[in-house]
Design a protein that fits this description.
Blueprint: H1 6-14, H2 18-40, H3 43-60, H4 70-93, H5 96-101, H6 109-127, H7 131-142, H8 147-154, H9 158-178
Helix pairs in contact: 1-2, 2-3, 2-4, 3-4, 7-9, 8-9
Length: 186
């Protein structure tokens, strides 16, 4: 059983095999515990979370699709559990005094209007770019695509994307400067 692959173990766990669960636990509990304890910085909380992680593995083994390795799947479950625990801890620690000390990050009306004006000016300057440069700027900044993804979408080499992005930014900076905008938001 010790030489059985993780995927086979998950299949057996899905069928209710307790021995397979014990083998998987023995194989991964230390690694998962170390991962979780680094996130939550509390061994007692980490122990509780490890129990929850392996309970989820037991319950969800039948839904494991094999799109990742078993260890990646378990670490993703552990990460979710740890982040949830951290959120609960932060929510519990927030008292009235602390809450009143948090600064409101929203803009006052003057700054909101200034941003709206700048945003309109930036859109106007984007029209001044060539179609190729505008396309690259749109994909990178508005659709948050990587250079590789843009290259694939547009059908050009990655270096061409980088070159177009360089010249597009340079031209956009010139257009913005001519429009009286030389820096970002206040």
């Amino acid at each position: 059983m010790q030489l059985t692959s993780d995927e086979v173990l998950i299949g057996r766990i899905a069928n209710g095999d307790r021995l397979a669960m014990q083998v998987l636990y023995a194989r991964y509990h230390v690694r998962v515990f170390r991962f979780v304890v680094r996130m939550v910085r509390d061994e007692a909380v980490a122990e509780d979370l490890i129990s929850e992680v392996f309970l989820d593995v037991w319950r969800q083994a039948g839904r494991f699709e094999g799109r990742s390795t078993v260890s990646t799947w378990m670490l993703a479950i552990a990460r979710f559990k740890a982040l949830s625990a951290l959120r609960r801890r932060l929510d519990g620690e927030l008292d009235e005094e602390t809450a009143s000390a948090i600064e409101d990050p929203t803009d006052d009306p003057e700054i909101a209007l200034e941003k709206k004006d700048k945003s309109a000016m930036i859109r106007k300057c984007l029209v001044g770019l060539s179609a190729e440069h505008r396309e690259i700027i749109d994909l990178v900044y508005y659709h948050e695509k990587s250079v590789g993804e843009v290259a694939e979408i547009v059908g050009i080499p990655e270096n061409t994307v980088k070159t177009r992005m360089f010249y597009a930014r340079k031209r956009l900076a010139e257009l913005l400067k001519a429009a009286g905008i030389e820096r970002g938001w206040p």
